[in-house]
Write a structure and sequence with these properties.
Helix content: 25-40%
Strand order of the largest sheet: 8-7-6-9-10-11-12
CATH topology of the largest domain: Rossmann fold
CATH class of the largest domain: Alpha Beta
Distance between the termini: 14 Å
Largest sheet: 7 strands, parallel
Number of domains: 3
Order of helices and strands: EHEEEHEHHHEHEHEHEHEHEEHEHEEHE
Radius of gyration: 25 Å
Number of strands: 16
Length: 384
């Protein structure tokens, strides 16, 4: 019986996928085989010997020590695209809020409470201070054209905007599905110089930290409006505050507020609502559950952030799943161990991702998993 631990409330549409004859789902198992998590921090957690995988019901995995996990042979999955529509809708909302001074106007209107019959006149007299431009005909710059960026581009184009996009990691398959009206550029500098609005849709890592800083802000149009529904750390706080004070940035909309930006004029701080919709939570939970089931039962990896995608059907007596360091001679040495045991490899899949790799062996005969685990560089062996 496999034990699945939930660190946050996970939608039943996800957990209901686990066959009750094979799995127990609980928030407090002793030594779980897999963990499902949303926002809970796992950096200080002790991982038990049984742990095979962690599935993040969402896109970002900054709350999970992914590098430490792979060193222990633990696969980490996320659910890219599952919450894309929810984030896109909030980004559209942010785009409009950044232009029309709606939040300021609403706050001002609350102050009219108790004015009685004068409210109508006061509204007409005071509304001029909240004039803001329409987005139609303006240029939206998208930094990142993945699941969310692509959907936001479609919405912006439908609203009459011009869209220019930049994505250094754009895959061929993703590019083929992009709206043909997007002007895809090879230089992020084009975004800075042309866009009236800039929306960030990048992953957060060492390379992207502080992408919006004093140097990049200087290249942008005066009065540019910046939307951040990706990760707070993509924007350098001191730089954005200085740009807001000088008027270089007209508005900063962020779904990742910190103490420094809250209450600052021309900052719209939203409390991380991007994926906060029942539809998004259902989609993420369902995808995360299926990823875990496929990995636990079939050895299939899809949407892992620390291991490569790989799949192989079992046609022989055993499917051998091996996580190892991406170094020379591993396949040769593993194959030798299988041969020594008298077994035969019917099919093999070997994939790598940066410093780590994954082998699937479809084997006829008996295999000694302990001997395979003893091969230098191998960190985890499972025989299904």
């Amino acid at each position: 019986m496999y034990q699945i631990q939930t660190l946050n409330k996970i939608a039943a549409i996800g957990t209901d996928n686990f066959d009750k004859a094979k799995y127990t789902v609980s928030d407090a198992p002793v030594n779980p085989d897999a963990i499902m998590v949303r926002s809970a921090s796992m950096h200080d957690m002790e991982f038990g010997s049984n742990l095979l995988a962690i599935a993040r019901a969402g896109a970002g995995t900054n709350n999970i020590p992914c590098d430490q996990c792979v060193e222990k042979g633990i696969a980490v999955f996320n659910t890219p695209g599952a919450n894309a529509n929810a984030v896109k809708e909030l980004a559209v909302c942010g785009l409009l809020l950044s232009s029309r001074k709606v939040t300021e106007a609403i706050d001002w209107a609350k102050g009219l409470k108790g004015k009685g019959a004068e409210v109508g006149k006061l509204v007409e007299k005071g509304k001029g201070q909240f004039v803001g431009p329409e987005i139609q005909g303006k240029t939206l710059g998208l930094i990142g054209l993945g699941a969310i960026g692509g959907k936001l581009a479609d919405a912006a184009i439908a609203l009459g905007m011009k869209v220019i996009g930049f994505d250094p990691f754009l895959s061929v398959s993703t590019a083929l599905h992009l709206n043909t009206n997007i002007n895809v550029t090879a230089s992020v500098a084009d975004i800075y110089s042309e866009a009236d609005y800039i929306s960030l849709h990048l992953p957060f890592n060492a390379e992207t930290k502080g992408s919006v800083n004093s140097e990049t802000l200087a290249q942008m149009k005066d009065g540019v409006r910046i939307l951040n529904f990706a990760r707070g750390e993509l924007v350098d706080t001191a730089s954005i505050l200085e740009a807001l004070a000088s008027g270089k940035v007209g508005k900063y909309v962020t779904d990742f507020p910190n103490d420094e930006v809250i209450g600052v004029e021309n900052v719209i701080a939203i409390p991380h609502l991007g994926a906060s919709s029942p539809e998004s939570e259902d989609n993420c939970a369902y995808m995360a559950a299926i990823e875990l089931i496929d990995y636990i039962e079939k050895g299939t990896i899809k949407n892992s952030v620390n291991l490569p995608d790989a799949e192989l059907a079992k046609t022989g007596d055993a499917l051998v799943c091996i996580i190892h360091k991406n170094v020379p001679s591993i396949i040769t040495n593993v194959s030798a161990v299988v041969s020594e045991s008298g077994a035969n490899i019917e099919n093999i899949v070997s994939k790598s991702k940066k410093d780590w790799a994954y082998i699937l062996l479809d084997v006829t005969g008996s295999v000694d998993g302990d001997k395979i685990a003893g091969v230098d560089g191998v960190v985890k062996v499972r025989i299904l």
